[in-house]
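New to this. Please check this record:
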Amino acid sequence: QRMDDELRRRKQMERKLRHAIELGAVQPHFQPLVNLKTSELIGFEALARWNDPDFGAVPPNEFISLAEETGLITELFEHLLRLACRQAVLWPAHIKLSFNLSPKQLRDRLIGLRILSILGECGLAPKRLEIEVTESSLVEDPELARDLLNSLRAAGIRIAIDDFGTGYSSLYHLREFQFDNLKIDRSFVKTLQEDGENAIIIRSILGLSQGLGLTATAEGIEQEEQLSRLISSGCQQGQGYLFGRAMTGGD
């Protein structure tokens, strides 16, 4: 009975997600990215949000994975990127937009052209966009992923490796792929003030990023003590509830 109920729920959610994309009900919210040394706002990461009348606030990992399984991911991605870029062109020119690329999209040979087409349509300069990919998304077809990311970088788009430290073969990927930004996973930041091992790991990651000439961004900063430790360790950028939650474009 539980399996049957879950199947019915997913079928219903698939229909509602397809309808929500068509109606524009799935919206990007924006979480601040901050220069830790100067406390200046440097950009926003776009995060997908869907509030359904029946299901309520659906967790992003749930409806994004559903979109991947059902073939809706390209339509969802283009819809969200277009809305995010339209919002970003209203910001001051030095404020960047960070946007996540799902693992399945790294196997789409046309995704680079779609991104550039949307940037041109919205009038957002490629240098103001940063695309985030996870380590795990690079594993299935590394050569195709490398070609795609290199083509985006050649167009002026920055590339960030997201959730660093939680995926596969981190050092291999840092050597083989050209990244601009290394994002430290929130799981390391969460217990920074109480876990000595995490502090050592973060210092090692920061040393690695500095040696490779990469910007380092810490995710999930919620407390002043975490902030001070990250600054003293040489972390350049950060995001988290301490600076602001994800908000609508109007907010």
Remarks:
- The radius of gyration is 18 Å.
- The first helix runs from residue 2 to 23.
- The CA atoms of residues 130 and 158 lie 4 Å apart.
- The chain has nine helices and nine strands.
